[in-house]
Amino acid sequence: MRSRREFIRMLGTGTVAAVAGKVIYDAAATDRAPLRRPNFVFILIDDLGWTDLGFMGSKYYETPRIDALASEGVVFKQAYSNAPNCAPTRACLMSGQYTPRHGVYTVGTPERGRAERRKLIPTPNTTELGTEHVTIAEALNPAGYTCACIGKWHLGGKAPYRPQDRGFDVVYDRSRRGHYAEDGQYLTDRLTDESVKFIKTCRDKPFFLYLSHHAVHTPIQAKAELTAKYERKTPVGGHDNPKYAAMIESVDQSVGRVLVTLEELGLAQNTAVFFFSDNGGYANATSIEPLRGSKGMLYEGGIRVPTMVRWPGVTRAGRACDVPIIGTDFYPTILEMAGAPKPKGYTLDGESLVPLLAERAGLKRDAIFWHFPAYLEPYNDRQWPWRITPAGAIRQGDWKLIEFFEDGHLELYNLRNDISETNNLADKEPERAKTLHAKLVEWRQRVHAPVPQRLNPQFDPTALKRS
């Protein structure tokens, strides 16, 4: 029988497929009891804030099933989405590439808000993931995986951009807006039903389930009985919205049902479960403190998200990891776990997390990056006149630098000492700011990231003044 140390070493070197003939061995399995390649369940929540779960500190929202999942795997305390809003994050997850490579920078038009307040003409945006980009499902198909996209896709609604055109064998999503399916069933429950059905159908073959919930995105709609429960609770720490809390609990119930299904079918020990959010929380519904900002911003509140991975036999239960990771890391991670090759000639911007999951080593990269050359209008008065103007950012070690393209000003923060990003150190640490900015510029050149430079002829500085 192979030792756990040898098994982890094999995973780290990517030789499991060669050694075991594409059969993955569990650390506790004997040579006579090999397990097939792991199944994958990737659960993506929409707009879930960093502290919106019990294990992340909330004393108001109740998430016992997600908390239990976190206690059984690794919690990444410094995990990031690739963008501060929905579509670009999903494009990065599916393609394994940074936003400049696929051009999905934002949701819809980049020219959001009033024209006279926009100093620059933003970079054009695409709303579809081009077919030249290989999705994670397309990469897993040749390795024998059956793939399902249950829920929100948001990367193109017509052929050839739909999930069923992009490697997914099973697809289900709502056909109308809001959190209710066509027959009136609560949407979170329906997506869970479809996910359970898929798992049962694929119980005897490797599968990849992408369960992409529409919750907890607006509109804030919840089940009446759960809402009533939270109306009787005392708000804590800025968490005080009963309907939003009820939406979170419905998501928690969904996660629980998926996990129970895996257990009942004897699949839990051979299924890796990922939990992630597409961006930070919506500040009109929840508090993201102690983080600064919220959905739609490059401050921590807009991009740092609750994240965990449970990989039985490899991840140590109850472990917390402080290494910064980002959404593009999941693609190469899943390929390595599956023993599947990277698509030939295809660029992946992320780094496999297998060494971290197995506690074998750290990551090799120097920094992670963001590029958001678009505008987002405010959704409350505190964000006036913009949630974000065109900007980019870099995180290296404890340091994070944000560059705002309208005027070129820089903001520098030490996140170890200042998680709330209250103390801009750009003037006190000019050399560090200069070095990080140079790295950010070099990265933009390497990935051909367009920076808006053309002035908007409609711009009126007086429109930025409060009347």
What characteristics describe this protein?
about 475 residues; eight-stranded mixed β-sheet; single chain; alpha/beta
What does this structure look like?
The chain has 467 residues and is α/β, with parallel strands linked by helices. It folds into 3 domains: 35 residues, no CATH class; 320 residues, Alkaline Phosphatase, subunit A, CATH 3.40.720; 97 residues, 2-Layer Sandwich (Arylsulfatase, C-terminal domain), CATH 3.30.1120. 26% of the residues lie in helices and 14% in strands. It has 13 helices and 14 strands. Strands 5-4-6-1-7-8-2-9 form an 8-stranded mixed beta sheet, covered by helices on one side. A 4-stranded antiparallel beta sheet has the order 11-12-13-14, covered by helices on one side. A two-stranded parallel ribbon has the order 3-10. α7 runs parallel beside α9.
